């Protein structure tokens, strides 16, 4: 049965000192429900800059797919794609940033912009060195930034009078010269945050949309190695070759209209997206600003098959006391097979919860899709509402007692607890992740403006 409440809510507002003070007071005077707090979030998506902008677009029932034949990521190809407007993404000012900008590709610029949003929301200027803070990146381990420009360079050099060394110096982007540095994106994020305690990466093929990076960050905090960790992921635009490879492994969706969304009876494949996200985790006894949500647990597991991995991950995060969820933020790929696998795995363990997901609005950003969903789940907890699933028209009756949010936002109790699930895409995938978040004591109207 679909959740279709009778009223909508589109909360807006400016940062509220009263709400922030209330959250700080609650943190200081009450025993926190978890030892890890979420204090900052940032998102770059096809909806624009900021998690609030994306959440409100979901609440309004918008989707952002560019149809085949247009000027989007894959003009003339059959796969609609939700495309980020890169002109909105800025780069920090100052001489050191101007120098660093020579080596920053698009992914680095998106990573820094998302990180600065999360830091600004947490009230951390990033101006001081912090050896108790670290970064964990969720990125792809494959691909070459030069793969798309090499054919152009080869064709151009045939009739170019410059010596080859001079030609390559002039034509090849500077950042390609230092491609071999491990976690290069993390170095830029470290510059923005001042965090010097770690700079590591969890790679997309096994990290289930970034939940692997979150799980690693939680472990760094719980073992006492760090007090705060900024987790940043980037799902870069897929090349035509990349889109074709994904489609061969599991067909991508070819339409982005009502009825093609996640959990719909007529869904026909995942819709491609792109973006970046940042989530700042802090040890509960080291938090100095407002708490947005509490992270109870996060697990990523590999098994012989994806269904087993998903079942084990969900069981692991729901095993602790106080983690009984009141809502579910699903991976919701829009895939015929994956949506069914996810529903039939989670429902017996969590029950018929109201469920939503973002991929019918902005598509699948692969390496960072779960980080985007985490930021959105935190936003839902601060607003005490779930937005509807994009492009969902007729929920699939074959998915059991699934209760997707359709058409309008659904109120949540305060504080609510959200189960979030993430699946690695593909027919041969064997990795899944899950996490549980609980909202702060009172909803807040401070929804965090994008830092620009």
Task: Summarize it.
The chain is α/β, with parallel strands linked by helices. The protein contains 13 helices and 16 strands.
Largest sheet: 12 strands, mixed
Mean pLDDT over the full residue set: 86
Q: What is the helix fraction of residues, given as a range?
A: 25-40%
Rg, Å, rounded: 21 Å
Beta-strand share of residues:
15-25%
Bulk shape: globular
Count the beta strands.
Answer: 16
Please mark out the parts with pLDDT under 50 across 5 or more consecutive residues, or reply none.
3-29, 70-74, 175-182
Query: Secondary-structure element sequence?
Result: HEEHEEHHEHHHEHEHEEHEHEHHEEEEE
Which structural class do the helices and strands define?
Answer: alpha/beta
Q: How far apart are the first and last residues' alpha carbons, in Å?
A: 42 Å
Number of helices: 13
Describe this structure in words.
The chain is of the alpha/beta class and 452 residues long. The chain is built from 13 helices and 16 strands. The strands form 3 sheets. Strands 1, 2, 5, 6, 7, 8, 9, 10, 11, 13, 15 and 16 form a 12-stranded mixed β-sheet that branches. Helix 2 crosses helix 13 (369-383), helix 4 packs parallel to helix 7 (184-193) and helix 10 packs parallel to helix 11. Residues 3-29, 70-74 and 175-182 have low confidence and may be disordered.
How do the helices and strands line up, and which of them pair or pack?
Layout lengths: L16 H13 L6 E10 L2 E2 L1 H9 L5 E2 L14 E2 L12 H7 L4 H17 L10 E7 L10 H8 L6 H8 L12 H10 L5 E5 L7 H12 L5 E8 L4 H10 L25 E9 L9 E10 L3 H13 L8 E3 L6 H15 L3 E3 L2 H4 L6 H15 L1 E2 L16 E2 L5 E2 L5 E7 L7 E9 L13
Parallel strand pairs: 5-6, 5-7, 10-11, 10-15, 11-13
Antiparallel strand pairs: 1-2, 1-8, 1-9, 3-4, 7-8, 9-16, 12-14, 15-16
Helix pairs in contact: 2-13, 4-7, 10-11
């Amino acid at each position: 049965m679909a959740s279709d409440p009778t009223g909508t809510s589109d909360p807006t507002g400016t940062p509220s000192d009263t709400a922030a003070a209330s959250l700080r007071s609650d943190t200081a005077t009450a025993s926190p429900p978890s030892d890890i707090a979420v204090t900052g979030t940032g998102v770059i998506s096809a909806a624009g800059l900021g998690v609030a902008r994306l959440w409100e677009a979901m609440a309004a029932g918008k989707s952002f797919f560019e149809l085949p034949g247009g000027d989007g990521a894959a003009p003339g190809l059959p796969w609609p794609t939700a495309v980020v407007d890169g002109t909105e993404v800025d780069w920090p000012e100052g001489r050191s940033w101007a120098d660093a900008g020579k080596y920053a590709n698009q992914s680095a610029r998106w990573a820094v912009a998302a990180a600065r949003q999360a830091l600004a929301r947490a009230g951390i200027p990033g101006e001081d060195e912090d050896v108790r803070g670290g970064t964990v990146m969720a990125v792809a381990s494959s691909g070459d930034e030069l793969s798309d420009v090499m054919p152009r360079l080869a064709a151009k050099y045939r009739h170019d009078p410059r010596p080859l060394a001079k030609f390559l110096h002039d034509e090849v982007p500077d950042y390609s010269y230092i491609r071999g540095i491990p976690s290069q994106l993390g170095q830029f994020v470290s510059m923005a945050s001042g965090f010097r305690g770690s700079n590591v990466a969890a790679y997309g093929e096994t990290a289930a949309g970034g939940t692997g990076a979150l799980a690693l960050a939680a472990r760094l905090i719980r073992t006492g190695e760090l007090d705060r960790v900024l987790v940043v992921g980037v799902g870069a635009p897929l090349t035509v070759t990349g889109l074709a490879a994904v489609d061969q492994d599991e067909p991508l969706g070819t339409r982005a209209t009502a009825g093609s969304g996640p959990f719909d009876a007529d869904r026909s494949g995942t819709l491609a997206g792109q973006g970046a996200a940042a989530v700042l985790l802090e040890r509960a006894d080291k938090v100095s600003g407002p708490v947005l949500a509490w992270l109870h647990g996060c697990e990523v597991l590999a098994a012989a098959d994806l269904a087993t991995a998903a079942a084990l991950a969900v069981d692991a995060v729901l095993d602790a006391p106080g983690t009984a969820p009141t809502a579910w933020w699903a991976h919701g790929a829009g895939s015929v097979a994956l949506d069914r696998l996810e529903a039939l795995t989670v429902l017996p363990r969590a029950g018929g919860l109201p469920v939503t997901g973002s991929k019918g609005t902005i598509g699948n950003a692969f390496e960072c899709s779960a980080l985007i969903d985490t930021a959105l789940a935190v936003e839902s907890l601060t607003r005490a509402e779930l937005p509807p699933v994009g492009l969902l028209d007729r929920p699939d009756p074959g998915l059991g007692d699934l209760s997707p949010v359709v058409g309008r936002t659904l109120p949540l109790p305060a504080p609510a607890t959200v189960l979030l699930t993430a699946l690695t895409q593909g027919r041969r995938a064997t990795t899944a992740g899950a996490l549980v978040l609980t909202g702060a004591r009172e909803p807040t109207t401070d929804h965090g403006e994008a830092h620009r």
